[in-house]
Amino acid sequence: xxxxxxxxxxxxxxxxxxxxxxxxxxxxxxxxxxxxxxxxxxxxxxxxxxxxxxxxxxxxxxxxxxxxxxxxxxxxxxxxxxxxxxxxxxxxxxxxxxxxxxxxxxxxxxxxxxxxxxxxxxxxxxxxxxxxxxxxxxxxxxxxxxxxxxxxxxxxxxxxxxxxxxxxxxxxxxxxxxxxxxxxxxxxxxxxxxxxxxxxxxxxxxxxxxxxxxxxxxxxxxxxxxxxxxxxxxxxxxxxxxxxxxxxxxxxxxxxxxxxxxxxxxxxxxxxxxxxxxxxxxxxxxxxxxxxxxxxxxxxxxxxxxxxxxxxxxxxxxxxxxxxxxxxxxxxxxxxxxxxxxxxxxxxxxxxxxxxxxxxxxxxxxxxxxxxxxxxxxxxxxxxxxxxxxxxxxxxxxxxxxxxxxxxxxxxxxxxxxxxxxxxxxxxxxxxxxxxxxxxxxxxxxxxxxxxxxxxxxxxxxxxxxxxxxxxxxxxxxxxxxxxxxxxxxxxxxxxxxxxxxx
Length: 503
Hints:
Layout: E1 2-7, E2 15-23, H1 30-38, H2 42-48, E3 59-63, E4 70-79, H3 88-99, E5 107-111, H4 114-118, H5 124-139, E6 160-165, H6 170-195, H7 203-217, E7 220-224, H8 226-232, H9 235-241, E8 249-255, E9 268-272, E10 274-278, H10 298-313, E11 319-328, E12 339-342, E13 348-351, H11 358-371, E14 376-381, H12 385-391, E15 396-401, H13 403-415, E16 420-422, E17 440-441, H14 449-458, E18 465-469, E19 475-476, E20 486-487, H15 492-500
Parallel strand pairs: 1-6, 2-4, 2-5, 5-6, 9-11, 9-14, 10-11, 13-17, 14-18, 15-16
Antiparallel strand pairs: 3-4, 7-8, 8-11, 12-13, 15-18, 19-20
Helix pairs in contact: 3-5, 5-6, 6-10, 7-10, 9-11, 10-15, 11-14, 13-15
């Protein structure tokens, strides 16, 4: 798809469909008023009868032609102008593509009035980037993985996206829009991989996907099997992976040579939980929604896709992705509640709940990343049900230390329109994680369990670290006006934004 940014009045652009954001508070806009006049007053008429009142994601398709350069005009409500934020911008793009499902369109123009760029300090460059990203993410067909031969209405695959602005540095705005499209493509890559079923994606297949990314972008790949992981001393990683007939794979991708850092002197490691299926192990889960546990590999899919995206935007930038991949299953070799294992960093851990497996594999992965020279770390994981109960499907909870590093990670998320909420690391809860037989337990009482998950992971880092718990936000259980149900690709854009700070 070609992406262009043009300085043009909305009636002058030529396209199959012109999309126009409509706010519910109807601010005075001379260009919108003139477009309405050229459409014979239809925008105003639709608003008058409540069909196009600006309510978020309510839309109407109007005939164009006449004094415009488009065949059709799609009015899309976006809510109150003063309430628009960077979260809204990618949703505008996504909502447009969801509205156009089943519609034949090759060239889509989107009118972006200056008032949108000025609201909440978004800025024109961020606006075009985020809308372009949202359009690309909205083009994805979430059901195409296994159902390509079934006739159904799907989002259109655009030949050209034209973003219309009042004025500005078109070269810079064009680069921003192209950047957004590339980030959107990477997010879709993460989504496709996350949604593949567990009988399709084992740890071995996830390693193959990583190797393909490495070959595609000239990255160095490290794939460790169970024997190598055990020899290195990854006792927590092996405690989870040894119960399945599908052997574990410890996966890493790296760009830049050994000892290389970015312009900021850092080597960022992005660590993603890669549980290709989580039955809970011996501490088996209830059957309700267990089919969703194919999504427990989403963190790994996210960091691998982010690695590919950064390689496209900043080739050679020193960066690392680490994806410990396991299948957590009950079996004759499974870890039992009460087993004691030694972590890669030497700490001794009592495994009293085999369904608290993500923190085990992440702990060894974080230690390994530091051993490879990582100066800053971010892990992404579908770690706890508690985070969804606390924040729902639209906010990602997280931890970080020191505070300045968390602030940097969350600021990267804010720039990409992704919401995060910091959870405190309260040391008073550590006493509840004590063990008679080991340095600590991997699970304890349910009170404060979300905080305890962060405290456990903190035991395996010595450098700036942030943990993003995407258990709630990684996938949607129902369609939204701006996104299809299934994997969301959440945190991919944040990781890319954070990594590019070192370019």
